[in-house]
Every structure is written in C-alpha cells, then in structure tokens.
Amino acid sequence: MEQLLNKNPRIEVVDALRGFAVMAIILVHNLEHFIFPVYPTDSPTWLNILDQGVFTAIFALFAGKAYAIFALLFGFTFHIQSNNQKKQGKDFGYRFLWRLVLLLGFATLNAAFFPAGDVLLLFAVVGIVLFLTRNWSDKAILITAVIFLLQPVEWYHYIASLINPGHQLPDLKVGEMYTEVAEYTKAGNFWDFILGNITLGQKASLLWAVGAGRFLQTAGLFLLGFYIGRRQLFIGTEKNLRLWIKILIISAISFAPLYALQNVIMKNDPIIQQTVSTAFDMWQKLAFTFVLIASFILLYQREKFSTAVTALRFYGKMSLTNYITQSIIGAIIYFPFGLYLAPYCGYTLSLIIGFFTFMLQVKFCKWWLAGHKQGPLEHIWHKWTWIGTNK
C-alpha cells in the first residue's frame, strides 16, 4: 500500500480539484460546440457509433457535475478570503460585494464569446447569498444549503399542480431566446454576435438557470463550499479522510436509485417532468458530483496520483483565465465568424480539440506561473478587489 503524503494538501488538492472541474467543463463545452449545435450530417456508421459513445461517456461523467464542483469551490474560496480578513478583525462582506460586481465584468467578457452559456453571471448574482450568511453559524449554513439543494421551488410547483390541475409553470420564453441566439450566430456577423451574446444571450442563460433549478442549486453549493471551508474538511487529517470515505460510499449508493427514479419520472406528464424530475435530476447529479470529489480527495493523498495530476494544480490556479479563454478559443474554432469548423466536427473530434486546447492552456499556465503569482485575469480581479488598499 502506498504511503500517504505526510503534508497538508489543503491548497494543493483544492487547486487540483478546481483544475479538474475546469478541464471537465472545457471537454463538455467542446462537445456542445459552445451551445452551437451544428454537427456533420454524413459521417460513416462507425464514426456515428463512436461519437455517440463519446457523447454518452463525457456527459455521464461531467455534465452538471463539473459546474457543481466549480460552484462548491467558489463558496470555499469565499471562506478563505473571509477568514483571512476576520483574523485581522475586518469584515470581508462588503469587499466581496464589490468583487461580485467585478465578476459581472468578467461574465460579460466570457458571454461575448459564449452564446447563452455563461455561468459567471449566475455566480455573480447568487454570490450575494454568501454575503448575507457570512456571519451565520455552521449549523445554520448547512441547514440552509440542504434546503436550497432540496429544490423547494420545484416541489412547490408540483404540490400546486396537485391542488390545482390547471397550475402551470411560468413560461420564461427561453426556447424562443435560444432560437434567436442560434439565428444571429449562424449569420456570422461578428459584432451582432458579440452584442447579442452580452444582451439576449445573458438573459437566456440566466432564465434557463431559473427554469432548470440552477439558481437554488448554485446557492446551496456555495453554502456547502463555505461550510466545508469552515470545517476545514479539505485538510488531509485521518478524521477528514474517514469522513470522505463515508461520503463516497453514501453518494455511490444514492446515485443509482436517484438516477433510475429520475428516468422513470421523465415518462410522466409535462408538469411532473418539469418539477419532480428536475429535482431528482439535480440530486442524482449531486450524488455523482460527490463521488467525483470524494474519490479525487482520497486519491490525492497518494503520492503517485498527486504527482500524475500536477498539471491540474497549475490549471486550477488560473481557473478564471482558463475558463474565459476557452470560450474565446471555442468561438474562433466553431462559429461562422471564425474558422466555422462546427459542421465538420462530430463529438469525437470535438473531444480531441477540447483536450488539445486544455493541454495548450496547461503549458501556458506553467509558463505564466513561473514568473507570476497569479494568472492574468486572477491578478486583475485581485488588484481591483483591493483597490484603495496596499494589497
């Protein structure tokens, strides 16, 4: 049996885990052609079979899970920043609100190249929950996180539909918005594409998150990450590792029935599909997310594994830079204003492109971090967060 690393892996494992999440996000986004569903129409049978296998595997492993890890670590990072200020007798809350305003700027930059798919705007809006709960007790934070993750809005609509069969969910017109986004994207005019993305595209993305249960799930994940930070659960103590083993077992056992139930529920009438099914879909993905997190943390205690994923640490340290630049690269590769390779890239080739982009970004991260403490966008965010101070 390999020797456990005899050191505090807290920062390292968080950087590596964040890098893993962003890597998974870039692979999923490439398969989706960055929300631009244009694919080859005349591929040979063998390639179609391979493409479907690639799509099924990548989406089963990462879709909805990588984003969840990213959100959890956002809450964890808030704890680190808040706790550092607390040690100096300062309240980080209002500085954090300013930090969220800055995040809106980064969200706009990302959205400009990512039609109706930006998550940073959602983070900037939902991040207010961390400000509101920053002085709550650990117990209150955990309970609130669980309530959010239970998806109470979906259950409200379902119960309302039982009481009143005529009850309907609000029509947010997301489908119509995505259709309009697809039209101006296909037209290929660069400036119409940019303007449409930062206006209509952002609106569509935010309203989709409302309808898909992402608002409350993100709030719950933020608070869960905040709680994990407070309880120092990423530190590799024996007690914590035993806890992560329990989390792994419980999550793995929970995933299968939740996944099966969600598939059964999807066969019911539309109101159930849009409410109960959404809740179960979130839960099964959350269970698998914790299978990934717990497995990664436990494996990271092994020297061979931590050495093998060293690249992810560099990648995770520059997560904001990597997240936004992958959108710009993807837009240039797939969209009509750029190389317009989308019609020639099935899922398999798109995955290869995504992995190649990831490797290029890793090389850039290693080169950049050799001479800088932070990535370029991370540096700007940090500098502007502490504007007016000596930090």
Describe the protein in words:
With 391 residues, this protein is mainly alpha-helical. 75% of the residues lie in helices and 0% in strands. The chain is built from 19 helices and no strands. The protein has helices spanning 10-31, 45-62, 66-87, 93-113, 120-126, 128-133, 138-149, 152-163, 174-187, 190-211, 214-230, 238-265, 270-274, 276-300, 303-308, 310-317, 319-334, 347-369, 376-385. α2 (45-62) crosses α18 (347-369). It is globular and about 60 Å long. The termini are far apart. Residues 1-10 have low confidence and may be disordered.
Topology, pairings included?
Blueprint: H1 10-31, H2 45-62, H3 66-87, H4 93-113, H5 120-126, H6 128-133, H7 138-149, H8 152-163, H9 174-187, H10 190-211, H11 214-230, H12 238-265, H13 270-274, H14 276-300, H15 303-308, H16 310-317, H17 319-334, H18 347-369, H19 376-385
